[in-house]
């Protein structure tokens, strides 16, 4: 299962020494990296230490980790580079994988510092799944080592014979106890952790509309859908609390799948309890001019008390005006823009572009690389038409620019 880390690095790093470079696109992601020195910026501006997964070799990690997307029947080889000081795994929560590839240390394998693991499985069932580290599980989970896996069925349906829908809206609920993240020392029983920070897709409070967690590519978590279409809410919990969704009746929510399988009889739902590790797939159909929120309540599991609410905004796509807001100053120039084939990227302040990533308008990573120069060229001829965000991270400096193909 393990191979020498340097071989995979050589094959995977998009290192740029010259100004010309042809980007590759790939899906599914061939490599996940891990890091233990990440920062999550809380809703009130606090820097919370996190561990997690990421897509770049420089240890840039996010909470939750990257969304892993597959199609029913895909043969997946998920490689995992551990360039952090502790051992980790990827447990494929809910997927039908064999024991050797399940990421539970005692029955599968563990990936120690500077080694590479590879998880082979077939995405045999469509649905909503999760992944997380299974080493010293309570501690590594609360530090942020988890993410969501979507297995889409071909043909735009949830599953064979299931309903069709317009697009996916992944919502991963999680929480953490700030004091633990500030001083991570040891594992503890599940019931000993008392979360005091609650997230949807790594965001809390006003961040759900504005972004600003330090996680790039997504301006916020506002779900929109054209009138007459359905959105598939991909719901999963990595929280230590009970998550209770309050869904407005106008959204006509119908639950079609639970824990990665179709339910025998789909049912209408206005209140949905999601316990840690559970997943549901729920279709909603907002009417014309609809503009409202789904309330995401967190309840303490020990004393069954309500503790916190976040709100996810849902609206008719016709109400969306213009492009999403970009928070950071634009210190990158891209030309020509729009372009059909090759773009030239230049950092206006003369800094090396360093680690760069291109996201599509939904915040999904399209490609990434590293550039030791303030300028580069990227071939975008195989990108789909649309709007993209190019982001470069050089040390503490993050800059972004939008371009259109
Ligand atoms: Cu871990």
Key features of this structure:
Immunoglobulin-like, 2 domains, 6-stranded mixed β-sheet, 5-stranded mixed β-sheet, 4 helices, 28 strands, 6% helix, globular, binds copper (II) ion
Tell me about this structure:
This protein is mostly beta strands. The chain has two domains: 3-319, Immunoglobulin-like (Sandwich); 332-404, Immunoglobulin-like. It is built from four helices and 28 strands. It has helices at 5-12, 137-142, 178-182, 207-210; strands at residues 3-4, 15-16, 31-41, 47-54, 68-71, 75-82, 91-93, 115-122, 127-132, 146-152, 167-176, 197-200, 222-225, 231-237, 242-246, 254-258, 261-268, 271-274, 279-284, 291-299, 306-316, 332-335, 342-347, 354-360, 365-371, 375-379, 387-394, 397-404. The strands form six sheets. It has a six-stranded mixed β-sheet. A five-stranded mixed β-sheet has the order 1-8-6-3-4.
Summarize the helices and strands and which ones pair or pack.
Layout: E1 3-4, H1 5-12, E2 15-16, E3 31-41, E4 47-54, E5 68-71, E6 75-82, E7 91-93, E8 115-122, E9 127-132, H2 137-142, E10 146-152, E11 167-176, H3 178-182, E12 197-200, H4 207-210, E13 222-225, E14 231-237, E15 242-246, E16 254-258, E17 261-268, E18 271-274, E19 279-284, E20 291-299, E21 306-316, E22 332-335, E23 342-347, E24 354-360, E25 365-371, E26 375-379, E27 387-394, E28 397-404
Parallel strand pairs: 2-25, 3-6, 5-10, 11-14, 13-21
Antiparallel strand pairs: 1-8, 3-4, 6-8, 7-9, 9-10, 11-12, 14-19, 15-18, 15-20, 16-17, 16-19, 20-21, 22-23, 23-26, 24-25, 24-27, 27-28
């Amino acid at each position: 299962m393990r191979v020498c880390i340097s071989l995979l690095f050589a094959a995977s790093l998009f290192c740029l020494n010259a100004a010309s470079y042809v980007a590759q696109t790939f899906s599914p992601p061939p490599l996940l990296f891990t890091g233990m020195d990440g920062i999550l910026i809380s809703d009130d501006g606090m820097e919370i230490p996190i561990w997690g997964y990421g897509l770049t070799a420089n240890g840039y990690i996010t909470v939750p980790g990257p969304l892993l997307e597959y199609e029913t029947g895909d043969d997946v080889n998920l490689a995992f580079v551990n360039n952090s000081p502790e051992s980790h795994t990827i447990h494929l929560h809910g997927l039908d994988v064999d024991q050797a590839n399940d990421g539970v240390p005692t029955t599968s394998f563990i990936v120690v510092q500077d080694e590479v693991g590879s998880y082979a499985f077939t995405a045999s069932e469509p649905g909503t799944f999760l992944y997380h580290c299974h080493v010293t599980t309570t501690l590594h989970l609360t530090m942020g080592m988890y993410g969501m896996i979507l297995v889409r069925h071909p043909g735009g349906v949830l599953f064979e014979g299931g309903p069709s829908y317009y697009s996916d809206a992944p919502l991963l609920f999680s929480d953490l106890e700030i004091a633990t993240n500030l001083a991570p020392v040891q594992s503890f029983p599940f019931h000993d952790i008392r979360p005091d920070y609650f997230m949807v897709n790594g965001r809390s409070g006003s961040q759900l509309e504005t972004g600003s967690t330090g996680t790039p590519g997504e301006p916020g978590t506002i779900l929109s859908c054209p009138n007459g279409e359905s959105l598939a809410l991909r719901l999963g919990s990595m929280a230590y609390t009970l998550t209770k969704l309050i869904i407005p009746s106008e959204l006509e929510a119908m639950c079609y799948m639970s824990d990665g399988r179709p339910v025998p009889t789909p049912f209408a739902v206005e209140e949905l309890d999601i316990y840690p590790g559970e997943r549901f797939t729920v279709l909603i159909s907002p009417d014309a001019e609809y503009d409202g929120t789904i309330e995401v309540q967190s309840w303490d599991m020990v004393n069954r008390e309500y503790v916190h609410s976040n709100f996810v905004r849902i609206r008719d796509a016709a109400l969306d005006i213009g492009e999403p807001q970009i928070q950071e100053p634009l210190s990158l120039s891209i030309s020509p823009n729009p372009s059909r084939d090759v773009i030239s990227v230049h950092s206006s302040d003369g800094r090396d572009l360093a680690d760069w990533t291109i996201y599509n308008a939904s915040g999904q990573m399209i490609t990434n690389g590293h550039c030791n120069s303030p300028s580069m060229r990227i071939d975008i001829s195989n990108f789909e038409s649309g709007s993209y965000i190019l982001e470069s991270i050089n040390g503490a400096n993050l800059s972004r620019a939008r371009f259109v193909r």
